Amino acid sequence: xxxxxxxxxxxxxxxxxxxxxxxxxxxxxxxxxxxxxxxxxxxxxxxxxxxxxxxxxxxxxxxxxxxxxxxxxxxxxxxxxxxxxxxxxxxxxxxxxxxxxxxxxxxxxxxxxxxxxxxxxxxxxxxxxxxxxxxxxxxxxxxxxxxxxxxxxxxxxxxxxxxxxxxxxxxxxxxxxxxxxxxxxxxxxxxxxxxxxxxxxxxxxxxxxxxxxxxxxxxxxxxxxxxxxxxxxxxxxxxxxxxxxxxxxxxxxxxxxxxxxxxxxxxxxxxxxxxxxxxxxxxxxxxxxxxxxxxxxxxxxxxxxxxxxxxxxxxxxxxxxxxxxxxxxxxxxxxxxxxxxxxxxxxxxxxxxxxxxxxxxxxxxxxxxxxxxxxxxxxxxxxxxxxxxxxxxxxxxxxxxxxxxxxxxxxxxxxxxxxxxxxxxxxxxxxxxxxxxxxx
Length: 440
Ligand code: HEM
Ligand code: HEM
Known about the structure:
Cytochrome Bc1 Complex, Chain C; 18 helices; flat
């Protein structure tokens, strides 16, 4: 999808030059003096990176306020949340704000990753920034996860219990890792203290440090990715302030209004006080991990919790290091063929994953079919290899049918993984009931 070739810099009445002043200088701390005119077009970024940054600032401000009252002990945590909700002026609003923007930041950062991927902004000179971005995503998820435990209610206690139980299946170090993270055998006082310190100290500091590096890399690459063009208007440089700043402020205010309205009308959940002796049924992991929890119902735990996520992560970190595609990057979905491949990949992944979940629930039982073998082979390596061969065959078919080049095949693999994970995640969140049985 190419930019309309209007004369952006001269026809747009908003484009102007600001008089240098205090705020101008402040804004220049995170912006270059001049940017390319076409990088202002909204569909290039949808403002998602900036929104993620603003949400982090909101989290830091509301989190610091919550720290004044929150008590990180099993005896005091739940009561301090009740106190924030009922006694502290605007306490409930601040807690809701922290809760909802904590959820929203995961979604926005993920959408930002999709934007970056589908405009191929992972090729040099932005390759390293893709890798930094993946670590940022991990930090945001860890921040959300460590925050999840802090209210110390039945929801948070048991969600963290099932999620940390998954670590047991990491080969060799699983048990030690689980105990180190919990600070003992069970989720208890030491776990809360560890999570609190990670949540309000180590992780935000790490995120902040890495963000500085992330923005510096954007600047070093000469701004965001723009498809190569000979149109002089599109490559023309214009002052970033106020042209870019005004747009950022508009998007920022809209985002703040949305989060505020959500926080005014919808309370963050709070169930009964955590009771380690009574487990609700079903116990679900936080929503972003429920795809992994769903995988556990179909594969041996070592495959579901360790091998499959490791393979997916290895691919995500390494594919930008393969030889770049032949055309110039920056166009949404790369080529017309790329668009078709993404559509075919999304539809086929959706159907295949839905059928596999239903078949896994009612028909397939490798363990019963191959009773002589250890479970890690019968219900682990064998189905994994069958899936591997099936996907390889499907990929080969797509490559031949579309005469797809490297970047287009990357679109196929990524979209397939993405849709499969989303289906697994929603199946886990919506369609799993008592005893994690499928309830349609
Ligand atoms: C990206 C950054 C962050 C995310 C995604 C995040 C997420 C969360 C989540 C999901 C909760 C549970 C909210 C609830 O249901 O009650 C929480 C609680 C909390 N967070 Fe954060 N947080 C972030 C940054 C921070 C920072 C920087 C601080 C403080 C310096 C902080 C302090 C707290 C405190 C004190 C609580 C317990 C109060 C409560 O649960 O309402 N957070 N956080
Ligand atoms: C807290 C998390 C993050 C924040 C605050 C953030 C912020 C930003 C901002 C403000 C930009 C400038 C352009 C834009 O807005 O799109 C940007 C660009 C970029 N981000 Fe992020 N980002 C985050 C996470 C990620 C993730 C998860 C990835 C991918 C794995 C990523 C990869 C990139 C890349 C490659 C660019 C350059 C894009 C281009 O040149 O078009 N970032 N980021």
